[in-house]
Amino acid sequence: MTDAKPLRADARRNRDALIAKARELFADGRFDLRFDDFAKLAGVGTGTLYRHFPTREALAEAVYREELTAMCERAHEMQATLPADQALESFLRGFVDHLHHHEGLARTLATLMATQSGALAEGTQALGQVVADLLAAAAKTGAIRDDVGAGAVMMTLHGICAAYDHPSFRTDADGVVALVLDGLRRGEP
Amino acid sequence: MTDAKPLRADARRNRDALIAKARELFADGRFDLRFDDFAKLAGVGTGTLYRHFPTREALAEAVYREELTAMCERAHEMQATLPADQALESFLRGFVDHLHHHEGLARTLATLMATQSGALAEGTQALGQVVADLLAAAAKTGAIRDDVGAGAVMMTLHGICAAYDHPSFRTDADGVVALVLDGLRRGEP
DNA sequence: TGACAAGTGGAGACTGTCTCCATATTTTTG
DNA sequence: CAAAAATATGGAGACAGTCTCCACTTGTCA
């Protein structure tokens, strides 16, 4: 899981430049730029880009890794300081809220979830684990049912992410969260 | 909405050949074939393919239009013969069941929902209308809440479609439906 | 049957992806 | 500190799909 590669100085510099430029472009909505151009704009060669990030998705993952990690950590904090079912609710609502203000992350998550390509989906797997933990904890207290797995909730989250650019995104996404939460809280199978 | 084009005989023949071959290939899982090859395999020229179906998605939509229409009609029948909330439940369960046995349709729906490109998404819009009708009817009887719109339910359906090839598809999709139904049935906002 | 409209097909232009390797930079070693 | 070894670079060009264009064929209608 942890990297054991002491990257050469210039290599790290280029890698960082790539990520920085990509972050800037993504935030600007320029997501589907010609891939080679990311390299040009970051001031490195095409080969260098491909060596560091074999695919557009790999680059996106690198760009949003921190953000995703932060999100997972926040969930852990909540789990430590709030009653289980409130932690779950806060997480889901926070998830939608965050997506609402960070389209890039939503797009990335939608893509990563769609292509469940093992190596790259590391980030989404972490998210899945977080959801599973939240559900398990809430189920143990009896606050929610235990016959619906994290996979189901992840599916709904995927649906939410995929709609990041719909005009009624916020309303609909909030609706989904309401359905999921109330559905979960309805005790019996 | 209705076509007003009297298509020439050979044109119709080619169009049908294209759809037939595509249906066959899709059912076989050969979805991402080189687009030009659809033409070659159907025995027509590249230009002809592009004239009839400007994009891969347009072809997919044509292939699954009947299937989608049938699905919508089934919903209408249910609505005419069952209590509103049962119609809704049957439809959602039937939806998952159908997808489970028709990956191609699932893939197509996922794609069409993602690219909300007006012209092509005609099929999904019909689906959205059906869901809206089912919800409205059930809400009027008081069987379900009325503060969550069809858009939210469509989001969850999108999530379901997008996961058509996950190993745990059926379990998770059933879970989503359970959450949605129970979430909807929980009366108060 | 002739004239006109409608449709065809496939060569090749075009566009983006990705590889390859001679060259350059960094790190290690003596 | 210099040479050797290891590591990384960049961008020309091969390649693979997509899609357009138009000289030619087929169908339709009077």
UniProtKB/TrEMBL annotation, chains A, B:
Gene3D superfamilies: Tetracycline Repressor, domain 2 (1.10.357.10)
Pfam families: TetR_C_43 (PF21597), TetR_N (PF00440)
InterPro entries membership: Homeodomain-like_sf, HTH-type_TetR-like_transc_reg, HTH_TetR, Tet_transcr_reg_TetR-rel_C_sf, TetR_SbtR-like_C
Keyword Transcription regulation part of the UniProt annotation: yes
Identification of the protein by name: TetR/AcrR family transcriptional regulator
Transmembrane domains' residue ranges: none
Keyword annotations: DNA-binding, Transcription, Transcription regulation
PANTHER family (alphabetical): HTH-TYPE TRANSCRIPTIONAL REGULATOR BETI, HTH-TYPE TRANSCRIPTIONAL REGULATOR RUTR
Lineage of the species this protein comes from: Bacteria, Bacillati, Actinomycetota, Actinomycetes, Micromonosporales
DNA-binding region: 34-53
Residue runs in coiled coils: none
Highest taxon above the source species: Bacteria
Domain HTH tetR-type: 12-71
